[in-house]
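Could you please review the protein record set out just below?
***
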Amino acid sequence: MQIGAFTFVLHTHLPYVRKAGRWPHGEEMLHEAIAETYVPLLKALWELREEGVSFHITIGITPILMEQLADEDIKRHFVTYLEERIQLAEEDCKLHLNRGEERIANLAAFYRDWYADVLASFDRFGRDILGAFRQLQDEGYVEVLTSAATHGYLPLLEQDSSIYGQLKVGVETYIRHMGRPPRGIWLPECGYRPGYMRECTGTASPGGTAAPCPYYKPGIEEFLADLNLLFFFTDTHVIKGGRMVGKVAGDVVGPYGAVPRRRLVIKTDELPTVTKGTTFRPYYVQAARVAVFGRDEGTGLQVWSASHGYPGDFLYREFHRKDEHSGLKYWRVTGAQVDLGQKDLYDPRRALEQVGLHVDHFCDLVHRRLREFHENTGQYGIIVSAYDTELFGHWWFEGIVWLQGVLRKLAWSPDVELTTAYEYLEKHPPTEAISLPESSWGLGGGHWTWLNPDTEWMWPLIHSAERTMEELVELYPDAQGRMRDVLNQAARELLLLQASDWPFLISTGQARDYAQGRFQQHLARFNHLVSIARKGEITLEDEEFLAEIAEADNPFPDIDYRVFANREQV
């Protein structure tokens, strides 16, 4: 008899990098993820399908990533990238054979064949990654989630028009690529704000009339309900309360980690409301018929944890050391405190043997946690094991094989139902509602990762652009012709400058200069388009500018700028 359910939830996202630079930051970031994660993941899932394994998995793909994966230029550039990798591996193979370094030469040959297989798989899927995921969804194996259009960090956006616009464009993009409306969503960075009363500021609305204050600002779940999205996800500590572990653990530096002071509006509902719950069941959020699932801490740490997660096993490939000629990775983790220069050579065969042990360990953990919950409560719970998709294959080279092994083993388990989030929700709807705090799965569980002394300069610029976009919608309630093109491109640039990736890359120091430059670039393009719209006429010079940036920043071809109409007090 089955005692509970399990689903992987993979969040798949990269920023808009189309034609925006090459190594180490830019479009090659996407090429790496396609080669090391997306194509191998698809291949692993299709192999399970061909074996007759009845697997189920929940995978989110952000709209801005969908647009890039469908882009013909990116597809062509990706093939070139793979051909370059194959050539570099072949050169390494010959080089190390001439030096008598047979083990490294064999590893180079391994990579040559591995990249060739990725290229063959890409061709087998018709170079249509989204189409392959869509077919798996249509056949009932995969539940694909949507997200905000450009992964904007919703709690820190000021105007409700921007929150709605990010979500609405995300839903429309999903429908265009997946052929049906989405059922669930992964909120960017699990960022959530509850409904609250906005205090009076004395500022005027776009129409010039002072807005009556205080007035109600809806919670994120209310936007989701308006767009017929049925569920979302949050981190463990948000549901359970108490100490933070895993991704959110750590001290928050500076004064900007705290939640903004807002007066929370708690709605009443016919369901009993809890303030702390369990991640083994979903809850409705406030009065909205939108459910929230909490990430399971126990299984999550087995992969996320830097100290005792599987990816740190000494036999697995070392991510951080690369060959100075080819960039290929020939070394293994070796030990916890081993210097990069002292790493031992990687052995793919031994690594795969270790994967089998970790598959067994993880599946045993899933059984044990579900059994304990079932015995303690008598309820049929679910484990939601959530990760960034790029962790598998890209960061943890063996992770795709591990993921496939877990799906295969759990699919044949008599005790565990392998499911998707929607399937579980349909069979086991919530019986309680919960009041969620303002939160994220960033450092400290708050906003610090995106709002801190290094990034605070960005937010007034974003907020000003949000209000300006509302003004343009009011100025042009039904623009036509080239003016409509100008306003639609302004809407694209607003979405792109709102991406959470730019403050994230600044805060983490991973690509500070690149992120600052990209943010300023989209802001400058937005402001130039605003100036064109405000003067009311389009010159030949304006036409040339519009053509140039429309080619560079081309996602969301069906966008309607009016999605950013003022929604305050609506």
